[in-house]
Specification:
The protein has 150 residues and is α/β, with parallel strands linked by helices. It is built from five helices and five strands. A five-stranded parallel beta sheet has the order 2-1-3-4-5, sandwiched between helices. Strand 1, helix 1 and strand 2 form a beta-alpha-beta unit. The radius of gyration is 14 Å and the shape is globular.
């Protein structure tokens, strides 16, 4: 799914729910995306990964993502706080952020767009729905859109 035979773009998914991460991994594989998918469990771990801190120091093992999938409601640092931090770091600011959450609250939608996210998606209730979302995300972000080289 990559343009110009480039190395697949890394997707970083932040979600505290192990079952949601497993379902996302399965849906990702089912949708046959060629991208590398990495997981972190909360906003603190997300920032450590993005800034190559702690266990994420090795930039070869933990490369910069070309897309962040982000749950909003996580412990330690929630998605809203993480978005603010990401958008305050010049090297991270261009990375597209897609919120993938159970929230349907208009306040969350408005606030996260105002913080600078690129898309807001409510998690589907079925596995097939999640596969469809992964396929659509793959097509849109990796075939249609031009992403910055980070």
């Amino acid at each position: 799914m990559e343009k110009d035979n480039a190395k697949p773009i890394v997707i970083l998914y932040a979600d505290d729910d192990p079952e949601d991460r497993m379902l996302a991994q399965d849906a990702f594989e089912e949708s046959r995306l060629a991208n590398d998918l990495h997981f972190v469990e909360d906003g603190e771990e997300l920032m450590d990964y993005l800034l190559n801190r702690g266990k994420y120091e090795d930039e070869k093992q933990y490369p910069n993502p070309g897309l962040i999938l982000l749950d909003l409601n996580m412990p330690r640092k929630d998605g809203r706080e993480a978005i603010k931090e990401i958008k305050d770091v010049p090297k991270l600011k261009p990375i597209p952020i897609v919120v993938l959450t159970t929230s349907r609250a208009e306040e969350d939608i408005l606030k996260t767009y105002n913080l600078g996210i690129n898309s807001f998606i409510t998690k589907p209730v079925t596995f097939e729905g999640l596969v469809d979302i992964m396929k659509t995300l793959g097509k849109y972000w990796f075939e249609i859109v031009e992403l910055p080289k980070i």
